[in-house]
Specification:
single chain; alpha/beta; Rossmann fold; 2 domains; seven-stranded parallel sheet; six-stranded parallel sheet; 15 strands; about 15% strand
């Protein structure tokens, strides 16, 4: 049985990581999977999974041409695989949802995944207005919509007026690479280096500049500690310049983008995982992938109370503001620190993609979107 998964973006975002993991687990369940996103010529897929047909569209400039070409390409891909049963679209964007609506006309089952309020990050203007229109327009046509946080589900119910029966909570899981690393790591109280890791996209959604003065004070108080910042984006050069002004050169290292599959090994060489987002309606609808990954790798986690951080409050230090985060970081660096065994086990038990997608497939069978096991 064939399923098409269509992402409107490139494979560098957290949304793409989420969607590819769903695709990989559907393939592991025995489904035939066709996956499309946007990619530069010669780009490799996020992962390689035997049996997944990966067919990306080329990226172009300007943005309008890019979206138009991607939309036409995805329609073409649909006709190449018109024997599919399900068309699963990531985000309410025209370059994948137009093909999804066409698939519905041909009797296919269609599903939409909403994992962020992307348009809310844009400044006032035409781009935000157009993006917001599509965000509100497309969901009404999908009989099943998956969301990854309770707050986002409530937003869809209250603001988009989507009834409960069409919404499904599909949790944000952790990639298998992180769980395999967790299984391979010792579970004793070994001491890690005095190091803090911060992983995020350093683009328009980044609030990392809020943390830099605080990190300067923490590093001043602990001369042997270091900070590793992993990620890239349009604001990276600005953050690097600010770090230099604060005297952090050499102790706060920007690595740039690291391949997702290489992150677990790098994470395990650090003691503390740091995450921060400003409090807002938009951010509180986000699932924090990095908290899950830090915990899977056995790190102590310090974060603020934003997004879905409270789900991990028994295994991470969820603080109310930056001042409390600073106090917590200083305390952790001042004492010997072993691996966060309880956090690692919690993630293994509750955020494995295999169990998340197993439950999703059972739900789809209950809704008659998929036939009963063994059926056609």
């Amino acid at each position: 049985m064939k399923i098409i998964l269509a992402s409107p973006f490139t494979s560098t975002s957290g949304s793409a990581i989420r969607f590819w993991n769903i695709a990989a687990q559907l393939r592991a369940q025995g489904f035939t999977v066709v996956y499309t996103d946007r990619a530069k010529r010669g780009a490799e897929p996020l992962y390689r999974v035997d049996g997944i047909t990966y067919r990306p569209s080329r990226t172009f400039t300007p943005l309008f041409l890019d979206i138009l070409f991607s939309a036409v390409y995805t329609v073409f891909l649909l006709f190449r695989h018109l024997d599919c049963r399900i068309f699963y679209a990531l985000k309410p964007a025209p370059n994948n949802c137009c093909a999804a609506l066409l698939a519905r006309l041909f009797g296919k089952k269609i599903i939409l995944d909403i994992d962020d309020l992307d348009y809310e990050y844009l400044g006032p203007g035409m781009k935000k207005n157009v993006s917001g229109f599509f965000f509100r327009f497309f969901p009404r046509f999908f009989p099943v919509i998956t969301c990854h946080t309770p707050a986002l589900m409530n937003y869809c119910k209250d603001r988009l007026k989507i009834p409960d029966r069409r919404l499904y909570y599909l949790a944000q899981g952790v990639s298998d690479e992180f769980l395999r690393t967790a299984a391979a790591e010792p579970t004793g109280g070994e001491t890690a280096a005095l190091s803090i890791m911060y992983v995020a996209t350093l683009g328009i959604t980044s609030d990392f500049d809020d943390l830099l003065p605080m990190l300067a004070r923490v590093l001043t108080g602990c001369e042997s500690a270091t900070v590793t910042v992993v990620g890239d984006g349009t604001r990276r050069s600005r953050f690097e310049a600010r770090a230099g002004e604060l005297g952090l050169s050499g102790r706060l290292v920007f690595t740039g983008r690291i391949a997702h599959a290489d992150l677990p090994a790098l994470m395990t060489r650090h003691r503390i995982g740091l995450n921060y987002m400003r409090k807002s309606v938009v951010n509180d609808c986000r699932a924090i992938l990095k908290i899950r990954e830090y915990l899977a790798c056995g790190l102590q986690v310090v974060c603020n109370d934003a997004g879905d951080a409270r789900l991990f409050s028994d295994h991470a230090d969820v603080e109310q503001d930056i001042a409390h985060m600073e106090h917590r970081l200083a305390g952790l660096l001042a004492q010997p620190g072993g691996r966060n065994v309880s956090g690692r086990r919690f993630v293994e038990e509750h955020y494995s993609w295999q169990s998340i997608v197993d439950d999703f497939v059972r739900y789809l069978r209950g809704r008659k979107i998929l036939p009963e096991e063994g059926g056609r």
